[in-house]
Amino acid sequence: MRFPRIERITSYARSHTIARIKDDDLKAMKDAGLNRIHIGLESGSNQVLEMVKKGVTKETHIKAGLKVKKAGMELSEYVMPGLGGIELSDVHAIETADALNRINPHFIRLRSLAIPNGIPLFQDYIEGRFQKCTEIMMVKEILMVIENLDGLTSAVKSDHILNLFEDLEGTLPQDKEHMTNILKDFLAMPPEKQCLYQVGRRLGIFSGLGDMENSGLAAKAEDACIQLGINPENVDETIDEMMKRFI
Questions:
Q1: What pLDDT, in 10s, does the model give residues 113-137?
Q2: What CATH number has the domain bearing residue 16?
Q3: Which run of H or of E encompasses 107?
Q4: 176 and 193, same domain (yes or no)
Q5: For the whole model, what pTM was predicted?
Q6: Which residues of 44-73 are buried (b: 16+ CB within 10 A; e: fewer)?
Q7: Do 59 and 95 reside in the same domain of the chain?
Q8: What would the pLDDT profile of 28-47 be if each residue is shown by its tens digit?
Q9: Residues 230, 195: contact at Cβ < 8 Å?
C-alpha cells in the first residue's frame, strides 16, 4: 500500500535501540520513508541517567543521535528540565548542553519534569531522597542549557503545557539571545509577578510573558490566585498538583 500524499513518517526510539542498528539498516528505513526520529534524551549527565535508571549513557545518546543524522533522517531530542533535582541541577544542565552540542539535532524539545503519584520517583520525592527543583530553579536550569549551546543549528521547541513558556522557541544560533531574554525577564520579576504568571500559564490564561500586559488576562490570573489562595510561598506546591493533570 502506498500513501503518495504523506510527507513525513515519524517514530519514537530509544538511544539504546538506535545504537545497535547497523548504519545500512537505518539508511534502508530512511529510504523506505521513515524520515524523523524522536529520542528521549532527557539528560546528558551520566549521574542523572543512572539515578533515574534510564538504561543508557551519555555516549550512547550521542552515538545514537549521530547515527540518525548520518542516515539522513531528522532528529528530535527531548530534554527534561528538573530531572536532576536540586542536587544535580547544574551538572544536568551543563552535561545536557554538551551532549546536544555534540549531536546538533534538528530539534530540541523541552518537557519540564512533573512527578505523577504512581511512579517510583514520586516515592523518592515524598520520602526525601529526591529534592525537586522549584519552578524558578528549572527556569535557571533552562537558561544554563541554552547559554551553553554552541555551534548548533537546532530549532528549540517548547510545545507542551508542562513548560512554563510556550513562546520559548527559536532557531539557533540567531534566536539564542531572544530565548535567553525571555528567561532573564521572568527571573528579574518580583516574586508576586512570577507567581501570577505561573498560575496564569498553568490555567491556560497565559502562553508567554507578553500576555501579562493584557489587563483582562492579568485580572483573570489575579482572581484565580485569590480564589485558590495561591501566593509565592505555596505556588510550587499548587503548580505540582496542576501539572499532574497534564500527564
A1: 989 888 889 899 999 999 999 999 9
A2: 3.20.20.70
A3: strand 107-110
A4: no
A5: 0.93
A6: bbbebbebbebebbbebbbbbbbbbbebeb
A7: yes
A8: 999 999 999 999 999 999 99
A9: yes
